[in-house]
Design brief:
alpha+beta; M1 Pyruvate Kinase, Domain 3; seven-stranded mixed sheet; six-stranded antiparallel beta barrel; 7 helices; 33% strand
Length: 481
């Protein structure tokens, strides 16, 4: 099987291998390249989608510290909340063209700007400048509607309702103008997970060999790395553990930045927010049976939070249960959604183009949705709450939708790693070392064990630049806990 210049196959054991052929040694010489290759191989061949969608295709951001911050900018315009109605006795505000007052939380509007409440049927214009009044600003407003019998309903002036600016309207020769408002955004914070794993091999252990051939698309040259079957099993388990951390990890720092969890040496153990925790809770919807309306309404809600009308591409990481539910909903007729291909394509030709395990649908307004199998959701070992109707894990009926668009020139979802610690590997030699080698009394080893140990360490995490554009559909539990 040929996977974009990567060849993965089992080979026989050859004689004459040196330390330079060993995978641990390769990590020392070309760590970033090797990690990208293995992230892709394990992501594609062993079904760890997040590893493939991030580090496997070179989408990694390196940071200097354990914690990392970023600014999430919202829309350049926003509605302003009503603090209170200072004229509760006025039951017909605006009647007959009369002005009325309202207290808003911010001083974002000026005289001559047209505002709308939560209903577009009642546009008003600001008269004069707002004046501060305690925790808000008093605005004088007047209805635009020339109908003298029309007034604005009191329900639209209740506390926590909102006004937003529509446009401005001025007279000829006016000296006033509408103002420009700015959104400074808000700061997000996460931290990396520090994960470790090792394997121990006895000196006489026999092993098979796996061969990974990496082809350089520019030069056409290829290089090979050798690792025994124990090492490959060790790596497979390691990448699964990393994938679970990318999905399920919980942020454990307190508001002051400290954590109560301590390791054996007394130092704190920090864990960062995984993909699921970073997604806005308001974008998570439960269902009992997946229907056309649920899917269309959900995708419409997510699309509102995607910056740029032309880049509405989503990957839905889902279990086989969700795929079956989705297929049933499609058969019942989701109008406006069309199967466009069986390839997963992102970016401008710089990423992957793979077939066979992806299904992409295109809907209204350019929304594209690619279903991608997430084996972790079907794992009965780690997901033991079952759907009583099918006996499958409830998690299998979950889909995690990721906005894979570009934000300010970078991908919305990437892997984050501490500089120099994305994937560290080393060995502790005893009677032998990886790749073999017979010693003499002058051979220096780290201990007297008949064998050796290989260690791997990573300080990494997943980063969603815009968590508001991602979401989840999940089957609600029929069980009573």
């Amino acid at each position: 099987m040929n996977v974009n210049g990567l060849q993965l196959f089992r080979g026989k054991k050859f004689a004459g291998l040196t330390d330079s052929n060993n995978l641990a040694q390769a990590y020392l010489t070309e760590p970033e390249l090797v990690n990208n290759v293995l992230s892709f191989v394990f992501g594609y061949q062993y079904k760890n989608p997040l590893a493939m969608l991030t580090g496997g295709i070179g989408k990694t951001r390196f940071v200097q510290n354990r914690e990392y911050d970023w600014l999430l900018s919202g829309d350049i315009e926003k509605p302003v909340r009503i603090v209170r109605n200072p004229e509760p006795g006025n039951l017909t505000p605006g009647l007959g063209g009369q002005t009325f007052k309202i207290v808003l939380a911010d001083k974002d509007f000026v005289s001559g700007e047209v505002l709308i409440p939560d209903s577009r049927e009642y546009p008003v214009i600001v008269i004069g400048d707002a004046k501060q009044d305690g925790d808000g600003f008093i605005y004088t407003l007047q209805l635009l509607d020339p109908n003298p019998a029309k007034f604005i309903p009191l329900a639209l002036l209740a506390t926590d309702k909102e006004f937003s600016k529509d446009y401005s309207a001025y007279e000829e020769g006016s000296a006033r103008s509408g103002i420009t408002t700015y959104n400074t955004g808000f700061r997000m914070r996460n931290c990396l997970n520090l994960q470790r794993k090792n394997r121990e091999i006895t000196g006489s252990a026999a092993s098979d060999v796996m061969v990974v051939s990496m082809a350089d698309p520019k030069s056409g040259k290829s290089s090979k790395m050798w690792a025994d079957i124990q090492h490959w099993t060790f790596l497979e388990q390691w990448y699964r553990e990393q994938e679970r951390a990318y999905i399920y990890s919980k942020y454990n720092a307190k508001t002051d930045g400290s954590v109560g969890l301590k390791g054996e040496n007394g130092r704190p153990i920090f864990t960062g927010a995984g993909l699921r925790e970073q997604i806005s809770p308001s974008n998570k919807y439960g269902y009992t049976r997946l229907t056309r309306n649920i899917i269309q309404d959900f995708m419409m809600d997510l699309s509102y939070n995607v910056r740029g009308m032309g880049d509405r591409k989503f990957v839905a990481l889902c279990g086989e249960g969700f795929m079956a539910e989705f297929d049933n909903a499609m058969r019942l007729g989701i109008s406006g959604w069309n199967l466009i291909d069986t390839h997963f394509v992102t970016g401008s030709g710089q990423d992957l183009t793979l077939g066979g395990q992806f299904t992409t649908y295109k809907g209204v307004n350019g929304v594209e949705m690619t279903l991608m199998h997430m084996p972790l959701y079907d794992d009965v070992v780690h997901n033991r709450e079952l759907n009583p109707a099918t006996g499958r894990p409830l998690e299998s009926y979950r889909a995690t939708f990721i906005d894979i668009g570009q934000y300010d020139g970078s991908s919305n979802m990437i892997k984050v790693a501490k500089e120099g610690r994305e994937q560290m590997m080393w060995n502790v030699g005893g009677s032998t070392v990886p790749g073999g080698g017979v010693g003499s009394e002058n051979t220096l080893r780290s201990n007297s064990v008949d064998g050796y140990t290989v260690e791997v360490l990573a300080e990494t995490g997943i980063y969603l630049k815009n968590p508001l554009s991602c979401g989840e559909l999940y089957m609600e539990s029929p069980l009573v806990v």
